[in-house]
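As agreed, record copied across for absentees:
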Amino acid sequence: PYNYEYLKKNIELNDIKNVIISNKAVSNYKGITFISSKGSQSKLTNKGIKVNVTTIDDLLNEYRIDRIDALKMDIEGSEYEALDGEFLNTCKRLMVEIHDDSYEEIHDRLKRYNFKIIEWRPSKTAIVKQSVKHFGHFCDAELKSGFPATKMIFRYIFGKDIPYMNDSKLKMVYAYKL
C-alpha cells in the first residue's frame, strides 16, 4: 500500500499518462495475504497489512491488455510465484530482481518460454557508477523524489551498510525474446 502511494506520486510528478497501476500484490493465486512491513523490505507473510492478491494473467484480463512489452518486477522473494501464467507467452522483456534461492527455477521457467536470459549481480560500486554515468536523469529523478538514491550513496561513501546490498543472493535477471 505504501509503495502504491509512492508510485502514484511518481507518475503524477513525471506527468505519465500511459500507465495503469493496481494496488494489489501479485502471485500465482487470487485472494488475500498480508505484507510484513512497509517500504523496500516488505514481504508476504501471515500477519501485517492486509492486501489483495491476484495473478498477472488476471490483471491483464481485468484491464484488457493482450501483451506485455516490458515487465519490471521487484517483489521481495515472490518472483517465482508471480512468474506463473500465460502472459509469459506474449511478454517480450522482463527485468526481475531475485532475492532468494529460486533463481534456477525462474531461469528454467523463462527458458521454457523461449526467453534469452542475462544475469547481473549489482554491486555498491556499480550503483554509484550508473548514477554518475546518467547524472542528468539521476538529478532530475532525485529532485522529484526527495533524494533517496543520493542519501543511499552518501551512506555507502561514509561506510554505512545499504540493507538490500547485503543480500548475497540478490541477482538481477534481464530476459527477452528475439
User: Anything to note?
Assistant: The mean pLDDT is 80.
